Amino acid sequence: MSAPTRTLRRGRAETSVRRHDAIPKVTGEFAYASDLEVAEMLWGQTVRSPHPHALIVSIDVSEALLIPGVHAVLTHEDVPGAKTYGLEFADQPVLAIDRVRYFGEPVALVAAEEPEQARRAAAAVRVEYEPLEPVVDPERAVELEPIHPGRPTAGHGFRYDPRPNVVRSMVIRRGDPDAEADVTVSGTYDVGQQDQAFLGPESGLAIPDGEGGVDIHVATQWLHVDRDQVAPCLALPREMVRVHLAGVGGAFGGREDLSVQVHAALLALRTGRPVKMAYNREESFVGHIHRHPARIRAEHSATREGRLVSVRVRILLDGGAYASSTAAVLANACCFAVGPYAVDNVSIEGTAVYTNNPPCGAMRGFGAVQATFASEAQMDRLADALDIDPVELRLLNALEPGGVLPTGQVVTGSLPTKEVIRRAAAIPVPEPEALPREAIRLPGGSGNTTRGEGVRRGVGFAVGLKNLCYSEGFDDSCAARVRLSADGSAEVHCAAAEVGQGVTDVMLRVARKELGTDEVTLVGGSTARVGSSGSTSASRMTWMAAGAVQLACRAALEERERTGGEVDVERVYRHPRTFPLDPETGQAQGDRSHVAFAVAAMRAVVEVDVDLGLTRVVWIGTAQDVGHALDRTAVEGQIEGGTAQGLGLALMEEIQVRDGVIANASFTDYLIPTFLDMPPVVSELVEEPEPDAPYGVKGVGEPPTLVSTPAIVAALRAATARELTRVPVRPDDIVGL
Amino acid sequence: READVWAGESLLTALRDRLGVPGSKNACEQGECGSCSVLLDGTLVCSCLVLAAQADGHEVVTVEGLVEDGKLHRVQEAFVETGAVQCGFCTPGLVVAAADLLCRTPEPSADEIREALSGNLCRCTGYGKILAAVQLAASR
Questions:
Q1: pTM of this structure
Q2: Residues 196-215 of A with CB under 8 A from B
Q3: How far apart are CA A204 and CA A484, in angstroms?
Q4: What is the pLDDT of residues B32-76, one digit of tens each?
Q5: Complex prediction ipTM
């Protein structure tokens, strides 16, 4: 079998362009996963459950097999190996077996000559269901029948919890949470279900190798863990399943879990033909995990002077039907429930549950987004109760190196919290704009709904703290391989997934610097050529890939020094080791449970039409702790893009789930920020190198998403004098209906 | 160029799957995201909302067609220079839409750029670098 016909071509003027992939991306030549094609290719289609919870009585594929062009129709009986997979626990069926647990769960697969034939055949698969009452209220999930009845979790080996439908429960306790204080404020906060909404829908191409193995070209975030999940399901040794990175149209956490990988491979191995699968937008909305909806109850106590005395937080996350990375998301939400503030007395309790709602997992910010929305609202309430300036209150309590996290971990790396707060607060805020003015510059915009009579201005401020890299003792590593030729040129292999953030340029930059030559070629990621890079997630890939490429380049130069000839070396980079939390106290066992941290602060200016409930974000100013910026433009791009996603959560983005069914699986009904929704963003980079990281870098993708939601909602509160405890904020919340 | 298509096939599908010009992208296929923007007889359209048959005998310019004699269009050059490209999935549609804007309005204000491109969704950049790119292209 031949390789896909479209391969990534390199930029024509590679040394002078900012990004090596920018030119093929502006000309349309760049090959995304959905652009792949190969001779003799079939099209795969997934048959999905229309029910959020049902028993499967029978599946009849006979009619589907009669449709012209159809080569295969597969059910769970055709899965040769493990019937389930998962990132943390193998609880998700490759194809539903006796029960479906969420709306859109894959039940059967079809392969046909043409995509339309595959779609028709999928519609002809007859599945008889016996609908069950769906578990849709996460508050009640722990009292209802387990939705995984044959698989009691008992808390999945973390903190023991015998209640049904618990993915993980967690406690972090430190000091005396009942310690006496002068002022106490409390609140309950809700976060809706956000979607990653990457623009390139899930897609991949599986090519059988004729010897029982398979090559999978796919848009993903972590090639090796895809392989490690797929191979057991195919009953193949790992080396017979090779996963190669195809062009990725955005990720944001939504490509950590499998989508088409195992399905396309099953069809390819069954038919002996290459099989392409490509979701449309509607299928994409049910075909990947989402950001966890959260309910957070918080109580903050302080002295009259404004110093935090104690913080109590209870967090409930709706994990949906399968675990995905829910256990780690809950841990992150709990660990960052206090935010970048020092407090001696803490009680944090977290529970993440299974329901029949859409499965949730990784999305940019990973639990810290939900936690920060609540904690920053609480800091504003405290400032209000104490009559202290909100920025001063944050400075007074800022967590800095030497300070202690709720887990007992002492911050040892760089964490310029006060500097970041001061720098963000010092950016000049634009003067209010006069009325009347062009409709496009009013809340409601070109809808021409108002002349501005009801427009009020508000300003909000927020600070957020995010961990970098994986935590809780995970063996987090990244491999890189360097080949030096006799002519002095170099080839660098690393599986780090380029998802748009620019990690390929980081790797090229490091290799050129370390090797002292511009003659460096970066070879696309593949499990066949190099070890695991770990995931492009957790604000870790720049740090880890830079570390791995640096290590491999230095080893290659040493090797050449010794042998004088051609060199081919592979090295594995690890960041400082982390340790698990004590399951009963949530205290770090060992010196740290997180590797390092980044902090961001943001001021948002909004205008609200208080009569119509319409909003306009006018301006954003932010300062972010970035360690050392390898590429200022790329860092600004992450800050601006991350800010936009937080703006979306603040104002518009929510998957509408009714009795377990997604009601808005389209860009008509699920709104993401447009050009007109995004204000100018003024960003300042605070550069204080991270001592444990190569070149002092820090990940930069997640902190802006943590802070923009609470900063914007704080500004809305200032404009409306309403509590606004739920995001996204709806027009009726603003008007008070 | 010619291709056999079925009656219900969109221009986008015909371009991508039959004619070998996959630069126009398939992000939503319902006219909401603009990633499939092309010029049909000089008019900006979402190619996912146009039947392939409707384009029979008409001029279609895709992102691939903006490159002349191997030289990038000034909008393409500006996107590269300002860092307006991240994942790039929205880029072909935005480049075509921005080129169309500059044909009609050679010196657009920031608000005019925002409004003209508000039908093109981008999930990576937050639009700031794209605004800078269009302003840079307009200045040349």
A1: 0.97
A2: 197-201
A3: 32
A4: 999 999 999 999 999 999 999 999 999 999 999 999 999 999 999
A5: 0.98
